[in-house]
Amino acid sequence: MERLSRILHRNEFYLAATLVVLAAVIATVNPAFLSLSNLFDLCKSSTVLGIFALGVLIVLLSGGIDISFTAIAAVSMYVTSQILLAASYTGPVIVAFVLAGGLGLLLGLFNAFFISCYRLPTLIVTLGSASVFRGFLLAFIGTKIVTSLPAGMVEFSKRSLFAATSPGGETIGLSTSFLLFIAAAAVVWVLLRYTMLGKGIYALGGNPGAAARAGFNITRLQFFIYGFVGFLSGVAGLIHACMMRNANPFDLVGTELVVIAAVVLGGASITGGRGTVIGTLLGVFLLVMINNSLILLGVPSYWQKVLVGLVIIISTGITARRNPQALHGVVAS
Amino acid sequence: MQDALLDVRHISKRFGGVQALRDVSLTLRRGEIHCLVGENGSGKSTLIKVIAGVCRPDEGEILVDGRGVGHLRPIDAVREGIQVIYQDLSLFPNLTVAENLAINTLIEHGCRWVTPGRIGRVASEAIARLGIKIDLHREVAELSVAERQLIAIARALLQDARLIIMDEPTTALTRREIDSLFRIIRTLQARGISTLFVSHKLTEVLEIGERITVLRNGGKVAEGDTSDFDYGSLVHHMTGREMCRTRGGPGQPGPPLLRVRALCRRDAFDDVSFDLRRGEVLGIAGLLGSGRTELAMSLFGLTPADGGTTEIDGEIVRLSNVHDAMARKVAYIPEDRLTEGLFLEQSIERNMSAADLGSFTRWGGWLDLGRMRQAVGKGMATLGIAAPSTASPVQSLSGGNQQKVVLAKWLMGRAGILILNGPTVGVDVGAKAEIHGKLMELARKGMGIIVISDDLAELACLCRRVLVMHRGRIVDELPMAEANEGSLAARLSDLE
Fold first, then answer.
1. Does A195 touch chain B (CB under 8 A)?
2. Is A83 exposed, middle or buried (0-12, 13-18, 19+ CB in 10 A)?
3. Chain A closest CA to B89's CA: distance in Å?
4. ipTM more than 0.95?
5. CATH value at residue A121
6. H-run or E-run covering B242
7. What is the CATH number assigned to the segment(s) B256-495?
8. Domain count, chain A
9. pLDDT tens digits along B304-359
10. Which fold has domain B4-239?
11. What is the pTM of this model?
């Protein structure tokens, strides 16, 4: 009984319920929603957004905010594509991932350096570094869209799990990249639940002073957090390039806010310390479903933006009502 | 001394040009409850930091169990069994009780991996050691301050504390919670754990302490068994001044200013009648929930009364909102000045002028900044607010000075009736005496003042009469000429 009431009090419960209800409504209006190809499509669409969201979740939990991750992703995927093309590399895609992840990690550590060593506000640092990364990319690396990607990346984008042929004759399958998203989610889940590092991230977001007094090494924590987010962003950027079949240096601008919105929708507190992987996944799926499936309902695409905004405001409002501290974060003691 | 747990000898510490500690020595025996008192800035916090190893002294040595410990680092202090519970309790509001209890221990053991089961085991042991019952799955943000304090104490015990230093632990507690905290401290004592109780609330210090050390301006000015001290002598040691010469309030009060008859408000107070005269300081005492705060709020129009009459200067008035009250020159200084009375991040000037912007407004709603600045400067001078400039944010001031800003804010509105709720909560003794002096002065100028307070010494010092409220009614009126703190305290404890 107690357990049940605890579940009923959780944000995730309401998110999951909303997700189910929305899916049911869409499916009644347009049964095509439940087709395997559409569901696989939803998974594919949630991959890049989802990996970004996992990174943002970690930053938000630690009481910070990162808006440079899309810039990091753009730099990582574009530079990686350029390097591999210049080297006429045709081997497996893993090298591309290592390269992009490594670049992302470096750029993330750049953020960590300023945040940790100069104690600057995370918003300011990442706002600045986002501009620096993007400007650097366009000024020194290039502005041309790369349309013919290295062979490994092209092949990766075509690969899929359990490929099948639909009654209509088209091949459908779950994109392999979705597996990477699920793996990343599992890693972050384990990190947050079963490691001291994860507890440290929550502790830092809950009460930085107390975290330092308890013996957490705050500098090391912050280097880990921003480095890890950079790594995830690099990987997500590369997946994005593979899916698009091109590397566009102007890409991904403006998606920061959608990602942050998905994480907040998933119950993470914007002021730090609260949020879960499950909630974030639900937030991402909900947002992707609204974005992709309203077309199936015949809702004009501009209205989707309005609806997404309303969903965020209402859901955050409900969270704040049920738990006033979740939004204000600081608890006077 | 053979059973000395901690021996701090001849400690001095300088911060830039400020001598924070000057040749301070302190001896703590095993199982002793020792109180450290002093005004803000007397060096209490620095001494705690030195003992906790957070701050390295310039001179002097620290001995634990008779052994010199040399340069003490925070981790060494913890290993010696010294635990500090800071005022903010150092808890994580977003984590569960279990996680809060276990986290320090797990870090100490250098764990990299944790499971909910392990956290639960560590946490259960912690609460078993303290002998309390609490739901380990609850988030700390949901707990009361008193419960959080228990968590902090339990966490300290888990790290094999032999000395627990509590920095101003009673600040946000109700009387009942303070009693239960004291019971816990005594239980710890029975198990040989010493407590260093740091506070400026002298009544509590006298109640719980076995020995008392008093600091003033970085030096030790007195030390001894609690029986060697009383309230007056402690104040004297802390401030170097005598307290409260004006027992019973200022001279003869004038004609009635406020006449309240059969005032009531559902679920708050009922049938309240009293008079407040010009030049009088009237006290209202009562336990939490007695309706005293609600009464004050009704008189200020925040929560209008349902029935009864209020007369000001012989005229029946309706106080149905704050605007009405302000028009009748009623001013209210709330209990929690930090949240209700001040804009903490804003400048002193903006805070002080906020209640009276109307009088600085010229044609078309423009503010006359010159005149405002002049008035603010005058207000700061009259109340003796110590601040670098009128542009300093209020949050940079000490508690006493913040309270003076609130006072100044309402005085600028030339209040006729001033209602104060806990006017000196969180204010040190020196600033308290000063605020009391100002209140007396205001009364002498013809203002009527109502003081609601838990601090019975304060009421005895300021007021000629004290009304005792209980369950929403005025149950007694004690003239302070004959009654004193003791009889007031007795009357209040009868009610419980």
1. yes
2. middle
3. 7
4. no
5. 1.10.3470
6. none
7. 3.40.50.300
8. 1
9. 888 889 999 888 888 888 888 888 888 888 776 655 667 877 888 887 777 667 77
10. Rossmann fold (3.40.50)
11. 0.74
